[in-house]
């Protein structure tokens, strides 16, 4: 976080006269920053507690029996004694509250437990899988933002035109198409039929991931990223379009036109910044959808990311892993929204980050 | 969703077969003669919790990194591997195994009886997918002899000697599952979890040296495997029967027999209003009568099920262990015989008194419900088709697709379309022994037969496998009127065995394959060390 930015922000919203002196001003701004950071951290903590309790209750209420999921078709070869040993290994022989508080106590000390499915520390599973997903999600996120914003500007600049109707039709169609379906279509056209893109995986078959070059990585990530982007583009494009249309009918646009601004100049000097505000907020808020979409895209393209692990943890009742992923996702999405807030403030100086200072 | 994927890609694959002509610059069509440096297999089988035999790795197929005391050859006969000999004491409690002295782990240390004893002890204590709980103690008598003492006689313990890979006592620590060290034909080069496993031949392996120096196992979904096969990127793709409908240039379709069976469990307990300790109802007034169960077995046309539902990729099922060394061939009945079915029903007192086409006995119409897991389209096809066949004989079948959770609550009172299949006789014991009635998914129908219990116990207590097989066979049908198969008690109506279908490179010879257990894909690796390249 850019500290200078925050200080400016606080100064801007500080209603006290500057005559009071710089030192007290600084003190107050520092206090305000601390208050802001403290508030955000406290909220995150409350959120994390609520999310973990809620997720645990949901998993407990679900009919999934992790032992049955683990045993699978081996059920006839696993006797009752062996089943008891499996339950003991996973600590499932205790009642639910005991298990939750044991997990929570360990989690507070930084130990997220051991994944039942992967037989490895949860933190490690999340780290390795998230590293694979991160590149994919970042690329998809970038593509979504750039194309969504671009389409919105193009459509909104000439509302009602053929281009506008075309863009809207295209966006509505894609927004209502399921991710995995888009993935399958792309897979068929570009991987199976044209053979431009690989069918699967995060790197060439048999290759050592640490020696796979950036180009190869990008090549393998492109189709799943485009799949995610295609589905995600809709909301940003439509919101941007709305904003553009509103702006062009507003006083600011009339004033700018009166000053002689036309066409690209109007767009560049006046419209972009205004239209960017909802796009930015949406873009950062869309991290949660990205997370969800990645699960499907990774399944279709056999991409070994966090999505695969999340699906497995849910289907097979791997409580420690599921809770770990939920916590990580919460922090991820929360951070996204926070960055969105700050970016919003940068794009639009009228907005304050400090609700308290406004009063 | 999976179904959608599959259907989607079937058509995609068909199109791809036509349009791309199977070009591809992948490994499968490298054009050069001679064995490829790297074999690429998309046959699933990733062990998500790692490659530790004491947690269940190596239950079927090749354990790759480790070697086992015994193994099953292509005919499923037990032969020596690490062991040079083994004998069982007359009371069946003490198993003495001599091991070879020329085997060493990939870190250079020799495999000793100490390691064997450690492996068995560890496996008996750990909560994994291999059940060694019958082991009391394992002790190394000298460097090449180990004594395994059991809590009770158990002839099926031989399967643990067949499946349990030996781990080095000195290197078996927390990280072992991800860094396995063993005395098997291959050693782990790299495991990119969720994506691929790369293994390399162990040059110090004592057994038959594999022809392929490097193997990549790709953990793709079947649809992606099929696409990879079409692109010429892989040498074997395991695909479901329903996907094995296209020609892939440069590859042949290999259909492997299996005991991956599907059959109808018919509750044998009468409906007396009893419930299990979880409160689930027990018993069925219709299927508890012998005549109904026998008629059902005779009425279904298993060949038609194979042709219609499995597209020919399967075989009619006689019992739960078809084609295995302990299979009783005399237990087969002639099916697709409606006349015989009606006669059995009439002899049992069932008659259609109200003219609705359904027979009755003492006011009870011959009508039962058959449940199948709703997500499984193959089982759906089998259940619906079998229901139609049975209905023609005068027994009405109400076919319902449900979730496993709901099936679990009704599986003691309604017929269920189950699927099993294992190289371990324990499965047959658990399915039919009365002591397992109502326990887990074992004997869900509360089938109870004194002679069958007796045969199963004798088989379990036998001290050599030939003797055990005699009793395993008798439990199916003893030629004196007892047995759980269709000729006697007809506790189940077994329907079909699935074939496991693989697209295999024209150049790759996988030799004679075992009759595979439940689970399609990885089991084909059982003979991996004898695979050869013919181009």
Would you give an account of this structure?
The complex is a heterodimer of chains A (359) and B (535). Chain A folds into 2 domains: 70-108, no CATH class; 122-347, MetI-like fold. Chain A is 75% helix and 1% strand. Chain A has helices at residues 3-13, 22-61, 66-71, 80-89, 96-108, 122-157, 162-175, 179-193, 214-248, 251-258, 263-285, 287-300, 306-316, 319-347, 355-358; strands at residues 114-115, 120-121. Chain A has a two-stranded antiparallel sheet. The model of chain A is unreliable at 10-18 (pLDDT under 50). Chain B is 24% helix and 21% strand. Chain B has 12 helices and 23 strands. In chain B, a hairpin with a 5-residue loop joins strand 4 (83-88) and strand 5. At the A-B interface, helix 4, helix 8 and helix 13 of A face helix 1, strand 10, helix 4 and helix 10 of B.
What is the element layout, followed by pairings?
The complex is a heterodimer of chains A (359) and B (535).
Chain A: H1 3-13, H2 22-61, H3 66-71, H4 80-89, H5 96-108, E1 114-115, E2 120-121, H6 122-157, H7 162-175, H8 179-193, H9 214-248, H10 251-258, H11 263-285, H12 287-300, H13 306-316, H14 319-347, H15 355-358
Antiparallel strand pairs in A: 1-2
Chain B: H1 2-19, E1 39-42, E2 70-72, E3 78-80, E4 83-88, E5 94-99, H2 113-125, E6 135-142, E7 145-150, H3 158-163, E8 186-192, E9 196-201, E10 214-218, H4 222-230, E11 236-239, E12 251-256, E13 261-265, H5 290-299, H6 302-308, E14 314-316, H7 338-347, E15 360-361, E16 364-365, E17 367-373, H8 377-391, E18 396-402, H9 404-410, E19 415-420, H10 426-432, H11 450-461, H12 465-476, E20 492-498, E21 500-505, E22 508-509, E23 532-533
Parallel strand pairs in B: 1-10, 1-11, 17-18, 17-19
Antiparallel strand pairs in B: 2-3, 4-5, 5-7, 6-7, 8-9, 9-10, 11-21, 12-21, 13-19, 13-20, 14-20, 15-16, 22-23
